Structures are given as C-alpha cells and as structure tokens.
What does this fold into?
Amino acid sequence: MSILVYTESENGKFKKAALEVVSYAKAIADQMGTSVTAIAVNADNTEVLGNYGASKVLLIKDESLKAFNVKKYATIVESAAKNEDAKVVVLSSSADSKYLAPMLAVALEAGYVSNVIETPSNVSPFTVKRSAFTNKAFANTEINTEVKIVGLSNNSFGLVETGGSASVEDFSPAIPDSGITVESVDKATDKVSIADAEIVVSGGRGLKGPENWGMIEELAEVLGAATACSKPVSDLGWRPHSEHVGQTGKPVASNLYIAIGISGAIQHLAGINSSKVKVVINTDPEAPFFKAADYGIVGDAFEVVPKLIEKLKAFKAANA
It folds into this structure.
C-alpha cells in the first residue's frame, strides 16, 4: 500500500503544483508509515519527483494523452490506484484535477475533499482541514471511505525537498476511447501562468486604459511574476479573459499578490484571498482592498509603480 499522487506536467515539464502534491503526499506517508508512488503522463526528468518524496514513478508515454482528456486520465489514475492498492490519492487544485476528482471518486468509490490546506490532523479517522466559504472559514472533515481522495489547495503546503530518489517504471493500462478528439490547443507562450505563479501583478480600471498596461508587464517581468486583471478590465477588452482573477475568474493562491488600481470588490477579494501576502496600490484610501491587504500604498500608480520598478531593478543589479 502506498500514497498515490497524480503529477501534472506540460510539454514534458512538471508543474510546480506537481512537486507540491508530492511533498504533501510524503508528509502523509510519513504519518501512515508508507511510501509515495507518483503517476506521470508524458513527463521528462521523472527522477526529480524522488527529490520531493516519491519512491516510485509510474510513467505513461502515449501521444494520444498529449491533451488532457478527463475520461482517459481518470481511467489511468484509477488503474494506478488499484495497481498500488492505494488508500489515499492526492491531487492538486488545478482546473484539470478538479475535473478529474469527481470521476475518480466515483470509479474508486472514494470520498473526496477539496481545498485541503494541511496534512491530516488524524489518520484514523482520516481528518483533514480545508478552507470553506471562499477562504473565510475552515472545516475539519473526516473521510470515512476505504479510499480517500485529497485535493490540495495550491501554495498551501509548499515544496519540501527530501534528497531522495525514485525508481521509474513503465505503466501501460488499458485506455478507453472517450469519443473526444482535441484538434488543437491555443495558449499564451513565454509567460508565467497564473496557476503556477508565486507572484502575481494585477491591474484594474485605475490604469485608465490598455495603453498603460506596459508598466504592469514591466513590473511582472522584473519580479518573474504572472500578470492578471480585474473583471471590469477583461469585460472592457483591455486584457484577455484568461487573465481575469476573482470569484468569477481564475482563483489565485500566490505567495505575493500585487493589486494596482483595483478597488477590491468582494468578488475579486474572494478569488485572491488564498494569497499569502497582498499588496495594494490605490489613490483612494477608502478602497475596500486596503482592509484585506497586508501592505497598502495610497498613491498614484503612475508615480508609484515606475519608482518601484526602478528600485527593484537597482536591487537586483546590486545582488546579481
């Protein structure tokens, strides 16, 4: 018996969330006195998972799995769980994993808990802490089924290197025909994705127009951050909807979230509340965002941000 982890990758490279769920699974394995097995699809450098706690990697190489297909992937993880006699399966909180989890729970007759933020407080009964009500409360939840599926909230546990190694085995389960064919996938390139970013720089209507977005991108480049925006900005067509963060957009759980010219509507705050440190720059001292922020600057973004960029560049140059 082992803890099974589904590790997501893109173009052969593991996502940050994959390394975090392996780190988390290792902590559970230590509690339960067992080991971690990772399932990887079309990934390279699988040995890296050993450094985060996996003892074994089941590797599938199949070009038909290049694009995510929930029916096929659910079958793969189900087969791996049964092959390893796994009683605990750990997933991330990505869109793909949230789509995968319910189908997998049905197939394994497992209980599924999402938005988990800590290792189990007890393994018998299996009890985990999860965020609820858009991170305004927490719930301690027992999973009483024989097989348990845990969805780890992004950036809640972090990456923990163990210095270990993992054996890699080819895995070739029977894969069903889903009846769905992906012709192509169009996405932004050469940018840090919001889901994987440790730092997110976000702009709102306070920027006055799309022509001023250059300073958001410049600040993001200096910080190695992803760029994002509020809903009104995407609705106005200043930025693509893929950058819209908030309750009705993409959720953000970054280590640092910088909001520039965003007042802080409740829907926006609900979507970024999982971020560890929130910084707001706004001319209005009464903007709701200031009540939720860890640090706030009351000032004109067109004056503050260029100075911030200048100071950051100088700091990076001095510490290169």
In short: Residues 54 and 247 are 34 Å apart (CA to CA). The chain has a mean pLDDT of 92.
